[in-house]
Design goal:
By secondary structure, this protein is α/β, with parallel strands linked by helices. Helices cover 48% and strands 7% of the residues. It is globular, with a radius of gyration of 29 Å.
Length: 411
Amino acid sequence: MEINEPFANFYRPKKLEDVVGQSHLLNKDAVFYQTINSKKIPNMIFYGPPGIGKTTVAEIIAHNTDMKLYKLNGTTAKLDDVKAITDELNSLLTNNKILLYLDEIQYFNKKQQQTLLDFIENGSITLIASTTENPMFYIYPALLSRCMVFEFKALKKDDIKKRLTDISKELKIKVNDEALDFLSIASNGDMRKAINYLEFLYQSKEAITLKRCEEIVNKASINYDKAGDVHYDTLSAFHKSIRGSDVNAALFYLAKLLDNGDLIAACRRLLCVANEDIGLANPPVISLVKDAVDSALMLGLPEGRLPLSNITILLASSPKSNSALSIDAAIADVRAGKGVGYPRAMQNKHYDGKDAKVKGQNYQYPHDYKDHYVDQQYLPDDLKDVQYYKPGDNKIEQSYAEYLKKIKRNH
């Protein structure tokens, strides 16, 4: 069988029903599926790792409507490219209906994203954008508020294996089950990568065996799936090693994350650790982590490993406190419906009404008193004696506790 284009493109599904995975979006009862079939397409952002069907779904949507499809890639597109598309709005080619698919929108700067707003607002352009990064961090808020965000998930091994099996049968490729398993795992949830592997092996005109697959696949990548259990196990081990003050283990798991290109996840985990496990035992470290993360993201890899290595060593070596988790008990009370109402002194209103037995807010301004402290009720009546925060046994928090005891003794 002669194929004159990349297999990944040739075997791209033409119908939503043929798209592998994404059942949370594409099963017939899903709101996403039903909305797309209504042909009334909203502005959307597809978020998820590469090779999982974002572009495919966008193309299927365009072909099922009477809109003219234009594609841009955020890594290369300029404002002139956007203007060239908008200039065609009144042409016979578009019938004033354009669907713009903007891949890698995270690389569009704020000004470029703002350019799209007017056209999206009046409905002359329907935008479907895709990104491998969390849109909450990378998409201009005004644009984000005009779009529905849908998360696409990494494909499961069995989904990929089934697709590779179907293609192999169509091409009459001799491939054993072990080889298919290997390629399905090695692709790390990326269908395009899996098909690329198969295409490369197919060109050799030899039967595809496990041994031949191992010749072309980096084995290290098989043991690390950014969307699978190994990814989350690595993050968990990284976090727990810092919490457990094991510097060497923390550096090992950081190395595993970074060697597999997982810079973003490592940065987010460090920010979490600083607040969850060190916090008030060493408050300055929270700002230091933010500085290290910003430096790493600006440098990228491999240089970004250096500030992250420094801060990982510092966090693992630092005194520990999980006092930040005190908020969870307060959240539990809020969700349980406790603390309805406010002590009168805490309210913002200044008029009590004619029937009020006690008039006046009676708030006492702490700065008018010795030690800038006055004993008055802050919590609602049903929670007035609750204690969410219990100082940790580290030196810094014990000094806070002693200060609070001292000012209360004096009053």
